[in-house]
């Protein structure tokens, strides 16, 4: 093989390699774009199915004073029913609010919620054999939130105690006025 043809062959081979590398790069970029599209669609779908986007409008946990409060109960891996789906949650019972955070991997996608006790209108406890759950009706929330297990019982007890304390306080203030 003469040196001129060898150089031409080498140049053609390099050009083919560049085309193949470019082809793989565009395939990889396409894959990344499709992956990001489906990830974004999944996030939007989860926010809609759980109703988290509606709850975030009013109850996004941006108050950092919660970090200074002492929790009256801390629970992990709690099953919760929201709108059209179920989530596994971390639940904190603070003196001023009920705090929810979804478990991994949704904790990176959905912000924590802090629902003040005053905004919980009703907490109905239902028990069937060994299963129990509390159904919460919250102001500015068009759907009920259900929390299962012992955590639900504890939420119901705290809600009932807070309601009784508020009723007792209103009786006291009414009797002092009269």
Overall description:
With 178 residues, this protein is of the alpha+beta class. It is 48% helix and 28% strand. It has three helices and seven strands. It has helices at residues 3-50, 52-59, 149-177; strands at 74-82, 85-93, 97-102, 113-116, 120-128, 131-138, 145-148. Strands 4-3-2-1-7-6-5 form a seven-stranded antiparallel β-sheet. Strand 5 and strand 6 (131-138) form a beta hairpin.
What is the first-to-last residue Cα distance?
A: 116 Å
What is the number of E strands? 7
Shape: elongated
> Helix and strand string, N-terminal first?
HHEEEEEEEH
What's the pLDDT, averaged over the residues?
76
Q: Calculate Rg over CA atoms.
A: 28 Å
The number of helical elements comes to 3
**Sheet with most strands:** 7 strands, antiparallel
* Strand order, sheet with most strands: 4-3-2-1-7-6-5
Indicate the percent of residues in helices: 40-55%
Topology of this protein?
Elements: H1 3-50, H2 52-59, E1 74-82, E2 85-93, E3 97-102, E4 113-116, E5 120-128, E6 131-138, E7 145-148, H3 149-177
Antiparallel strand pairs: 1-2, 1-7, 2-3, 3-4, 5-6, 6-7
Brief characterization of the structure:
The chain has 178 residues and is an alpha+beta fold.
Name a few traits of the molecule:
single chain, 178 residues, alpha+beta, 7 strands, 48% helix, elongated, disordered C terminus
